[in-house]
Here is the input.
Amino acid sequence: MRPSTIVIFTVLENPDSKIRDALYPVVSESIFRDLVREFEASSPSYIEQVQHVARNSFKSHYRRMMSPLINALIFRCNNQHHRPIINAVNTLKSLDSNQRILSVDNLPVEGIVPKSLQLLLIEDEKINRISYEICVLKALRNGLRCREIWVKGARRYRNPDEDIPEDFEEKRNTYYDELKLPENSEDFIQNLQSRMEIALRTLDTGLSKNNDVSIRQHGKNLIKVSPLVPQVEPSFLKHLKSKVMVQWPMTSLLDILKEADYQIDFTSILKSYGDREILTRDVLQKRLLLCLYALGTNTGIKRVLAGGEEVTQDELRYVKERYIHKPSLKAAIAKVVNATLQVRQSQVWGELWIALNAM
Here is the structure.
């Protein structure tokens, strides 16, 4: 039972008693402070203050870029539930730049302006244009995050129908079986809800009994998790390291990474997002290897360049952001693993192995 509910029942049962005599034995003083903070965080005055700060920040800085962005991007939607957001964006495109107060009769409001803010923002069937623009952008953000709204020509926010195979309708049952998912959406939702409920109950019952987790009442980080105990290093790993040192003394990990790329050319899989590449292959290969070494060893780009490499941090950051992304990196890893499995000695590692594809 929530503390606020306990307070209400206690007051109703003891209408003539003092607050300290009736409530403090049932609800502690700290809970009262929490209730006050909860009320302040959800009160109309607090919400109005948040909206005022957000509106001023948007008006003085971010708003100047809104019109060029929504005019340059073409938003699409595949269902009627999120259609009001597309209509609201198109309405903003068609408005006169000097129009500050908008009539609600001519605007999509349902699904755009939250019901909790309608009394605050809408007055006499009119709404301030800046406030409406903020609501439209928030609704647009939520639609893009759940992929219900997509952007024409985009990659990350592309049409979600392009993510499924072309023969999905013909082989729907096969794909669902491979993914181990039910075809009925209600079964999927119920399964997900039951898993979440089990996980939350496990967390609720086990958190207080976990000696590696401590919960504090005050401070910035209320939940503190103890560091994991380091695993014992396998005995054969020590022998393997010693044999490697005997065979290849003073060989660094970067040299091994470079040799692997020389043998199988896995960096060729890392392609740019752009249509053309300005850097030569030799220069790009060197910078890619340095970026991969910095990421894989957690050394960082700055420390990698401490050895006096003829490349700047900005150049490596450019290569990292433009060339190293998740799908191609997974494909490069799979290529390295497959090449390793193909050359391994069967008398040491056995005959059975499974080739990996791009994950």
Summary: Residues 353-359 have pLDDT under 50 and may be disordered. The chain has 17 helices and seven strands.
